[in-house]
Amino acid sequence: STLPAVAEELLREIKKAFQETSQVPDDLLLGLKFIFGPSAVPALDLVDQRSVTRVRAPSGRTLYQVLGSSGKLYTCYSSCHYCTCPAFGFSVLQKSESLLCKHILAVYLSQAMGACQELAVSEEQLTNILLAEEEDEG
């Protein structure tokens, strides 16, 4: 994983707290805001709206799709901390202003809170999703 240890630990704490109480305590919410900055609140909104879908093929290959606040669907890869949104390319990759965009953070939070929608697809459907993303970028 390429997230800083403090971010990994915070996500573990959120998962543990949520499993025990079905809530995220205020101190952990403040930690989220401190570590992830302006992405934290919009990411929590995406989780509340159940905008995160785990797309899984029979081989076990998995990706996430997040319905952004603009209504556009973004593909996220939690294994390598990558999102197809413009903010990720600009704020995370080019300027290094943020650790993550709100979509990837929403993926991690929805994993921790058990709030992912699930979608089973064929290998061919998963490949088509991946190829569609490449066409959008190229």
UniProtKB/TrEMBL annotation:
Gene Ontology molecular functions? zinc ion binding
Q: Which keywords does this Swiss-Prot/TrEMBL entry list?
A: Metal-binding, Zinc, Zinc-finger
User: Which InterPro entries does UniProt cross-reference here?
Assistant: Znf_SWIM (IPR007527)
Pfam families per record: SWIM
Q: Where is the SWIM-type domain?
A: 74-112
GO BP term, pick one: double-strand break repair via homologous recombination
GO cellular component terms given for this protein? Shu complex
Reading the lineage from the top rank, the first entry is: Eukaryota
The record ties this protein, via PANTHER family, to:
ZINC FINGER SWIM DOMAIN-CONTAINING PROTEIN 7
Q: What is the name attached to this protein's record?
A: ZSWM7 protein
Native source organism of the sequence: Illadopsis cleaveri (blackcap illadopsis)
